[in-house]
Amino acid sequence: MNEARSLSTNPLKSSQPLGAAYAFLGIEGAMPLLHGSQGCTAFALVLFVRHFKETIPIQTTAMNEVSTVLGGTDHLEEAILNIRQRANPKLIGVCTTALVETRGEDFAADLAAIQARRADALGDCRVVLAETPDFRGSIEEGWSAAVTAMIEALTRPTTRRDPERLVVLAPSHFTVGDIEILRQTVEAFGLVPVILPDISGSLDGTVPDRWIPSAYGGTSVADIETLGAACHCIAVGEHMRRPAETLRRKTGLAFTLLPTLTGLAAADRFVALLARLSGRPVPPSIRRRRSQLQDAMLDGHFHFGGRNIAIAAEPDLLYQMASFFAEMGAETTVAIASTPDNPILAAVPAEVTVGDLGDLEERAAGVDLLVSHAHGRQASEHLGIPLFRVGFPIFDRLGAQHRRSALYEGTRDLIFEVANMMIAAADHHATPESLNPLRNREMLHDSRPSPEPRRH
Asked: Where is the signal peptide (predicted)?
């Protein structure tokens, strides 16, 4: 792995505060609060609204020049009290930005003082702090920081275990559709999943019958408080290792980390783990889905074999997609990661460069497919290579939150979607005439130029 440059010409990554706010949006009754300027929040809000096509509840402490110099505690306190009064959330997730982080404030102490001083006004509203400066990390790190902070602040130590309860720490690149498949698979083994965060209940595109100012649906605060009472924890993606270790430290709950749930081998590992934890055989419905995936792999490998792929994504998503293409017989010849700190990059089946979409465009000439989020469309247009959109944001297509790539069903759908894109991008389509040499013979004979007459 190597780092290509010290500046970004076409950014690939989004900020840590955006990732943390995203995680808080998966909590029932939550309100993310970005501690920084209005511009910091507006940037994240625009991306969320364009991606989900929904109203997104995010607030800001609206720091200005004076408060940036003198300190933002007053702005933080005022914002928390206003949110409590107007939106009445169950949880306020404070996400710090670079604007306040560079000043070196003691946010934890300031927040503790606010909570003690305003205990009556806050009531049962919980406030969680995730320190997420923009100048390092990306969506995955921000998501991980928020989940870790929620476990640290809310989960209670316990030695009680419920043999039918299972904690799943979902990664930032899971869509609503992925989480729905995940839940259905766990429930098929008679287990009760507690998924954290759970955006499938809050960002699934439903229309409530009344105005709700905070996130609705998602993981409840009560479930987070009792995470330790489960029988086991499954963390998906390397960036979920930190919250899984925090949960183990606080409650003693053992965890298994699975780097991806995409692909036949990865789905098999997850299903085998569920069978072991539940003590039940694999249900016939899941065996049928596995068989469908096998058939899809047979159908699709003609369109994947020998193809060259260029991927630019967050580290865990990069690993997921590169592993998927390797399993299907394609080669990832260009792999661009947004950040360098994730250990999973060493396991990516390609040489990884830390860079941006400018690097993708420079290195991807001649590949068969680009894989990145919607900002990769410029490289696609310039190079004349189709773009398969993954990750966040996807604002120029509908239904991004319902796409699936996890477990047997999701991998099957992913194969079909990518294969169909490659078929559509092919230079020509096979016809009976082009495939039958006997038919072509006469055509070739007729198309030969007539010999010139000999001169005597």
From this structure: none
Is residue 404 within 8 Å of 398, Cβ to Cβ?
no
Q: How many CB atoms are located within 10 Å of the residue 275 CB?
A: 15
The DSSP code sequence of 228-241 is GGSSEEEEESGGGH
The β-bridge partners of 33 are 59, 94
Q: What is the pTM assigned to this prediction?
A: 0.88
CA quadruple 405, 409, 414, 417: dihedral, nearest 10 = -140
Please tell me the total count of domains within the chain.
Answer: 3
Q: Contacts for 246-255 with beta carbons within 8 Å, 24 or more apart? A: 246/148, 246/151, 246/152, 247/151, 247/155, 247/167, 247/169, 250/151, 250/152, 250/155, 250/157, 251/155, 251/156, 251/157, 251/158, 251/227, 252/159, 252/228, 253/167, 253/227, 253/228, 255/167, 255/169
In 3D space, the residue among 168, 221, 277 whose CA is nearest the CA of residue 30 turns out to be 221
Q: Which of 267, 283, 299 is the last residue of a domain?
A: 283
- In this structure, what DSSP letter does residue 449 have? P
Please give the average pLDDT of every successive group of 10 residues along the chain, which has 456 residues.
63 88 93 83 85 85 66 80 91 87 79 88 91 88 96 92 95 94 96 94 75 79 95 96 96 96 96 96 96 95 91 96 95 93 93 92 92 92 93 90 94 95 72 54 50 48
Q: Point out the domain boundary residue: 283, 312, 345.
A: 283
Q: Give the C-alpha separation, 90 to 365, whole Å.
A: 50
Cα-based angle 254, 255, 258 (whole degrees, multiple of 5) = 165
Range of the structural domain that residue 372 is part of: 291-425
Looking at the structure, tell me whether residues 136 and 185 fall in a common domain: no
